Amino acid sequence: MQTIIFFNSISFWGGGEKLHLEYAEKFVEKGYRVVLFISRNGELDKRCPDKKFIIEYISIGKLSFLNPVKIASIAYRIANYGASAIIFSASQDMKFACIAGRKAGVKSLVYLRGLAVPVKNNFVNRQLFYNYITHFAMNSLETERCTIGSFDRQKIQGLIQVIYHGIDLKEFNPENFQVSNFRAGYDGVIIGNAGRLTPQKAQIDLIIAASLLKKKNLNFKILIAGSGDLHDELQKAIRHYHVEDCVTLAGFIRDIPRFLSNIDVFALTSRWEGFGFVLVESMALGKPVVAYNLSSNPEIVSHNQNGFLISPGNIREFAEGLEKLIVNQQMRLEMGKQGRTAAENRFEITERVNEFETFIHTPVELKKPVVKKVTKQKTSDKGQRTNYQR
């Protein structure tokens, strides 16, 4: 039985954590022994107590990779499993897992990158990129450009491949849902948005767009799902633009599939996205989407087919795209159907995991640096919770 390790010390829930958990579940289904090195009582820990994983608890900070004692300690724990691959995403995990994983003798050190933001070309990252990481799995062309762009590709010995994230199309199937109570008999068009209330997601643009649409006496409502630091500021903006009657901050919603199934249009105002999970999820549920033409969005959305791609930052144009969908039900339905087809053809999770599996097991021999390997030791119960029965 092959073993792979997902190394994720992040305590909150985000796209990387969602992806690690979903991929871990799929690898268990494929017959792997899966070990999660995660933060105790973090969101990943809370969401997988009944899964067939081995859990190893870790506490990693931004500078932990400089601590040789901690590196050696966790390297011993990694070595005990004889894993063929260790997978990491966050910057602090990339630094730590590369060094500990190499010391433990893991052959595939896999950087599963999901952020379309530049990686600093500093000494530490150059060493890791050129001499440690064996597989760069990028979730979009834009993420690859931002991650690899400032580094010398000729010096990168590892393999680089764009592998789009997948979703469970059974979970995001429009036939599974009925109209939810939150519509409360409302017969207008509901526009949805979901994401953290942060400057990156720029929900303020949607509030301003609502003020433009309201002036045209259109029958619509906007629901913004999510929580974050900008909640009070956005609530203030809603009052400032006098759109209290048509814009609602819905708070954190755990059941995103049900939320998306009950809207008519999905609107994404993000300033950047590594991979727009929620765009694919909305498309899978047959919803047309409106998003800015930036980052990886054009790799997901086909303009004028399953949605509209808007000039970045052009709120008036964004409002016009929403207006077209508000007034034209047939357009909404047709674009929604094409979105579902695109999701089925390109973003089915089992196919993407199969692609990822083949990639991480492609042999790569790094010539340097030479790191003394540690030997396996008996697994202790300290810091470990075992759910998987060997």
Q: Any overview of this molecule?
A:
- The structure is a single chain.
- Helix 8 links the parallel strand 9 (220-225) and strand 10 (247-251).
- Helix 7 (203-214) crosses helix 12 and helix 10 (277-284) packs across helix 13.
- Mean pLDDT is 91; it is low at 378-390.
- The chain has an 8-stranded mixed beta sheet, with helices on both faces. The protein has a 6-stranded parallel beta sheet with strand order 10-9-8-11-12-13, sandwiched between helices.
- The chain is built from 14 helices and 14 strands.
- The protein has 2 domains: 3-166 and 348-386, Glycogen Phosphorylase B (Rossmann fold, 3-Layer(aba) Sandwich), CATH 3.40.50.2000; 174-346, Glycogen Phosphorylase B (Rossmann fold, 3-Layer(aba) Sandwich), CATH 3.40.50.
- The protein is elongated and about 65 Å long.
- The longest helix is centred in the C-terminal third of the chain and has 18 residues, at 329-346.
- The protein has helices at 15-29, 43-47, 68-79, 91-103, 123-131, 141-148, 203-214, 231-240, 256-261, 277-284, 297-300, 315-327, 329-346, 349-360, and strands spanning 3-8, 33-39, 54-58, 85-88, 108-113, 135-138, 159-162, 189-194, 220-225, 247-251, 265-268, 289-292, 307-310, 384-386.
- It starts with a strand and ends with a strand.
- The protein is α/β, with parallel strands linked by helices and 390 residues long.
